[in-house]
Amino acid sequence: MKGEKSLLFIGKVMYGLDNLEIHNLSIGQSAFELHPGEGIAMEISNVSAVFKGTIQYGYGSWLVNFGHSVDFEIDSQIDLGINPKLYCGDGKVAADTTDCYLNFHKLRLHLQGDKEPNWLKKLFTDFITLTVKLVIKGQICKEINKAANILADFIQDTAEQFLTDGDISVDIGITAAPVITANYIESYHKGLTKYNNKIAVINESSFISTLKDAFVVCVPVLGVELTRLLDKQGLYQFDLFNPEVLPRDGFVVIQMDFGFPHHLLVEFLKRTLQ
């Protein structure tokens, strides 16, 4: 970020912030709430971090003309609020996290190697501190929006891998924006079977009625094979809670809650940072 501002007794100040890095990040607590028909509310409190970077600055008046480059370090404590909106983007769930805000409880700027007089240093650091607040807010919210969409793609791509075996796969692209209820997020997927990347149309036939007659015989074998296939695809990596099979007219619905375990989060971060 670059800019300029006029300060009393100094004149015009030109500045640039480079190489902004985040260190020693820690999170106190977080809360998550679904707002039906609206979106998601996320609050992350007591976020502590140290920001490091380089300030390029210069100023001039009829008294003095000076240019300098100095490393800086910022100790901060922040509350972060995000209200993401979910929508359908290219057949996948996408998130808009532009409704993002930061509340600074502490922000202390330390300049390294600065030999200016104390009063001038304080005047300059107060000005730079305000500027850095704006930079940090914009950068953090921008990165959150990027990471949210990468994570959404990762989850859907992982789910597609579960439903792929050799040349057979299932198109689970979403057909509309997700619906947010008080207890869960509901999404509608195509569910089209593909063979060799071509849509396979399965028409009703006498096989369906025959299957109904032999259902009791098929279930034990089908259960074992489905378990083998899902384990092969890596479904065991997720934490599954309260799975239910709900019969419907001509099809079944498998309903369950699942957790996103730590090892998959690590894998996601490795792919993201490569």
Strand content: over 45%
Q: What is the radius of gyration? A: 27 Å
In N-to-C order, the SSE pattern is: EEEEEEEHEEEEEHHEEH
Major beta sheet summary: 5 strands, antiparallel
N/C terminus separation: 25 Å
Q: Give the integer mean of the pLDDT values.
A: 74
Inertia-based shape: elongated
CATH architecture label of the domain at 2-31 and 42-80 and 96-145: Super Roll
Q: Which CATH top level class of the domain at 2-31 and 42-80 and 96-145 fits?
A: Alpha Beta
CATH superfamily of the domain at 2-31 and 42-80 and 96-145: Bactericidal permeability-increasing protein, domain 1
What quaternary form is this? single chain
Count of helices? 4
The CATH topology of the domain at 2-31 and 42-80 and 96-145 is given as: Bactericidal permeability-increasing protein, domain 1
Low-confidence stretches: none
Overview in brief:
The protein is of the alpha+beta class.
